[in-house]
Amino acid sequence: MLGVLGDEWTLLIVQQALLGATRYGEFTDALPVSHSVLSARLRTLVAEDLLARREYQSRPPRAEYPVTPRSRSLWPMLTAVWEWERTWVTEHLTALPAMRHTSCGADFSPILTCRACEATVIEKDVVAQWGPSGSWARSTPSTTHRRRSGDRRAGAGALFPQTMSVIGDRWGFALLVAAFVGIERFTDLQTELGAPPGTVAHRLATFTSEGILRSHGGRYRLTEKGRAFFPVLVCALEWAQRWYPDPEGPAVVVTHRGCGRRFHPALACDQCCGRLRGSQIMTA
């Protein structure tokens, strides 16, 4: 999941595709992306079955890129990312618009719920354990798309600047997951993740400066802003384990304390309390 989605342009291209863009020109009109980057990402997305490629003109050759079931099922994660950035990140060049639930007609914020019992869920309401195929070593990819520096926030990073600090970096994502399961000390983080000390120090400094973690007495704990990232994390995990299953079994097993059943996330509208569907969401 991190290897595929840990790239800001990939997320934004999929987002535009879910909003209806299918043709090359529609992506370039919507995003400040270079032709070389867009062409490369479209090839990757087709190879990963996140987009299909369908030629609609032969002279000259032109193709469109409709969404697939795999990319359509990303809408909960993208909705959670949009809400987190809109609510907690102030550095956007322009404010992100609200989301509208077309079913009730109201601007809304998504609420994380348990699909089994429909109760509202926060991070303290679930317990996570490694499954048969899970471990820190197996759950961090060896490579991801290389992140841009310097001008990264002038492009795609203008929309998802701090989200990419987390999911755009394999160690950053693993460290935040470790924080959610209660690992707080530098030495414990280094030992569990198997990351170099300098890597852990750099990621901790980044998350602290962005207000995702706070440091006190040698411990690094999630802030309110950091805890608010939980819906993104569990929606990403749900998508990853659906589309990248391991024959040995799941990597992570999450249980809802409230009902005692396996936790599968669902998003609801905070205005009408109805369960959200991707086709019912638009920007206001």
Automatic annotation (TrEMBL):
<dbReference type="InterPro" id="IPR036390">
    <property type="entry name" value="WH_DNA-bd_sf"/>
</dbReference>
<dbReference type="GO" id="GO:0003677">
    <property type="term" value="F:DNA binding"/>
</dbReference>
<keyword id="KW-0805">Transcription regulation</keyword>
<dbReference type="Pfam" id="PF01638">
    <property type="entry name" value="HxlR"/>
</dbReference>
<feature type="domain" description="HTH hxlR-type">
    <location>
        <begin position="156"/>
        <end position="248"/>
    </location>
</feature>
<keyword id="KW-0238">DNA-binding</keyword>
<dbReference type="InterPro" id="IPR002577">
    <property type="entry name" value="HTH_HxlR"/>
</dbReference>
<protein>
    <submittedName>
        <fullName>Helix-turn-helix transcriptional regulator</fullName>
    </submittedName>
</protein>
<feature type="domain" description="HTH hxlR-type">
    <location>
        <begin position="1"/>
        <end position="93"/>
    </location>
</feature>
<feature type="region of interest" description="Disordered">
    <location>
        <begin position="133"/>
        <end position="153"/>
    </location>
</feature>
<dbReference type="InterPro" id="IPR036388">
    <property type="entry name" value="WH-like_DNA-bd_sf"/>
</dbReference>
<keyword id="KW-0804">Transcription</keyword>
